[in-house]
Amino acid sequence: MADIFKEVEEDLRRERLEQLWQRYGRAVIAVAVLIVLGTAGSVAWHRYQQHRQSTLAEQYGAAIAETDPSTGDLAKADAALANIADAGGGYGALARLEQAAVKAKAGDLDGAAKIYDTLASDSAAPPALRDLAKLLKVMRLVDSGDPAALTDSLAPLMAPESPWRFTATELTAILALKSGDQKRATDLFTQLADDQAAPSSLRARAAEMAAALKG
User: Fold this and answer.
1) Which stretches of the chain score pLDDT less than 50?
2) Lowest CB count within 10 Å: 7, 101, 170, 177, which one?
3) Model-level pTM greater than 0.85?
4) How far apart are the first and last CA of the chain?
């Protein structure tokens, strides 16, 4: 008798499964297919990204080699870096910095400044590199640019949390000196010379400048 009940229970379970399959079988297959396709797509995208980053790294290395003034070709380096910059991302940001440096080496300071401005305003670029672009622009234009405008652009970089605060402060002191504001220049150089967190070489330069201005 127990065997009969067991067979009946199995038949009922089989019938219930068949009914469920008839109702939901296609949906189950569709979901399974989507899962398989999604997993395959994710793996393929990850591999593509890895290959893309590897390719960009090789192109970046080759472009940097062309910036060597003794063995490279600056025009070729400029074109290669421009292509990498268009790709965006970390390598794109680094390529913009190098491209600006190449233009500066060639004497095109305006071209370099435009590239720095482009990177500084690129919300997709890492904040530290965007701020570095602002800093490097001032360094390139410190002798030819408008001291007041350059000083204003450095102000955010002098914040305590900025990784570029020491160099930004030094440049601001130099710009103050160029503007004829010797007192502010002296104060900033003295501040740097006394800041134990600043790099030792920068502190030494600042101490020399402060001493010369006071003397």
Assistant:
1) 1-5, 8, 11-12, 45, 48
2) 7
3) no
4) 114
Domain ranges of the chain: 50-141, 146-215
Question: 157 near 166, Cβ under 8 Å?
Answer: no
Distances (CA, A) of 118 to 40, 99, 100: 37, 12, 10
AA letter at 1: M
Instruction: Write down the H helix ranges in 107-146.
Output: 109-120, 127-141
How confident is the model over 136-161, as pLDDT tens digits?
Answer: 999 999 989 999 999 999 999 999 99
- Can you give the pLDDT at residue 2? 44
Tell me the Ramachandran region of residue 180: left when phi exceeds 0, alpha when psi lies from -120 to 50, beta otherwise: left
User: Distance from CA of residue 96 to its chain's centroid?
Assistant: 10
Helix or strand or coil: residue 54?
helix
